[in-house]
Amino acid sequence: MFEGGVLPLAPAGGTAGALGVPGGELAPGPVTFPEDVAGLLASLGAGGALAGVVEGLLARLLVTAQSHNDGDGGGGGEDSDAESAGSADGEGLFDGESGTDATLVAASEQRRTMGVEEAGDSGLLGLGASGLGELAAACHRLAAWAAWGEALAAACLTGCPELSSHPGQWGPHGEVSPVVGYEERRFNATCLLSTRLGISRTRAGQMVDHGQALMSMGFGPTEVMERCGVLDSAKASLVTRRLEDVPVPVALAVQDKVLPQAPRRSVSQVGRDIERALMETDPTGHTERVRVNVSRRCVTRPKPAGEGISQVRLVLPTMDALLLDATLDAIAASARACGEKRSLG
């Protein structure tokens, strides 16, 4: 199907398998059979096969990074190009650093992504609007699949015995107790993830909780859809978070109603769908769910949102949020009347 066009890489002595550095040179010319390529992208679930197709297509946008000193006529060859790639002064981004991250970046710095004005020469535009749209959708599925794997790995991390500092909490044969000491292991797991991934402990904790939900009986449909990439991580996390405290039969019934439409709806719309389905499926539990949710109200501390500005997130009871919104609307209308151009009328 793809003779002379889509994926085959002709080995050219490159570093095969290096992330971001294709192991060969792509065949020149435009992508052939764009309709077939679009169909292939749409038909593959998230995983290694889809990643290979996507990598082969996007590799067309990578070109050898040139030295900024090439105009001087000195010409240092390939070694010079590799050494000078990555910054204007001829030093790599992680120059002098060691470790896995530095190695990965150094390998990727040997190539650069071409500009939009150069993309026409890559042949990738031959996919057309439909094909490029499917390529973006394929990348979206891969991101969901990666988030699924990340969450499962984080959940499994809480079972590692080395994260427990109290031997008395282990079983007689050295196994970790599934109950005793869990909070300690969860805390240590979130600390490890926070350090390794460069995220907050709160975000790491959410990752752990999402992974544990996906591995439980009550979220089988969500797990399947996130694993194949049909449901992105934001929506999957919303489902597990909203339904984590409801009985398993209710959670499964709500997912049966919400998930078929979820891939084509926004996160906010999925949230409203969940609330509606909960009311239809378990109206008697509404009062208790509201009480639990209201008990989780919170206001975050200011976080930088740009030079000179910060953002604050509020989680409020619905009526309080509506009252605050109406008050801000009134203030905005008053400011608009006084000549403020940014406020809505």
Give the helices and strands, then pairings:
Layout: E1 9-11, E2 24-26, H1 34-43, H2 48-58, E3 62-64, H3 77-84, H4 100-108, E4 111-113, H5 128-157, H6 182-197, H7 201-214, H8 220-227, H9 233-243, H10 248-258, H11 267-281, H12 286-294, E5 298-299, E6 303-304, E7 310-311, E8 314-315, H13 318-337
Antiparallel strand pairs: 1-2, 3-4, 5-8, 6-7
Helix pairs in contact: 1-5, 5-7, 6-7, 7-9, 8-9, 9-11, 10-11
Describe the model:
- The structure is a single chain.
- With 345 residues, this protein is mainly α.
- Among the domains are: 38-60 and 127-166 and 182-296, no CATH class; 312-338.
- 50% of the residues lie in helices and 6% in strands.
- The strands form four sheets. Strands 1-2 form a two-stranded antiparallel sheet. Strands 3-4 form a two-stranded antiparallel ribbon.
- Strand 6 (303-304) and strand 7 (310-311) form a beta hairpin.
- Helix 1 runs parallel beside helix 5 (128-157) and helix 9 (233-243) runs parallel beside helix 11 (267-281).
- It is globular, with a radius of gyration of 26 Å.
- It holds the Pfam family DUF222.
- This is HNH endonuclease.
- Keywords: Endonuclease, Hydrolase, Nuclease.
- Residues 192-335 form the DUF222 domain.
- InterPro entries: DUF222 (IPR003870).
Structural key phrases:
HNH endonuclease, globular, mainly alpha, hydrolase, nuclease, endonuclease, disordered N terminus, endonuclease activity, two-stranded antiparallel ribbon
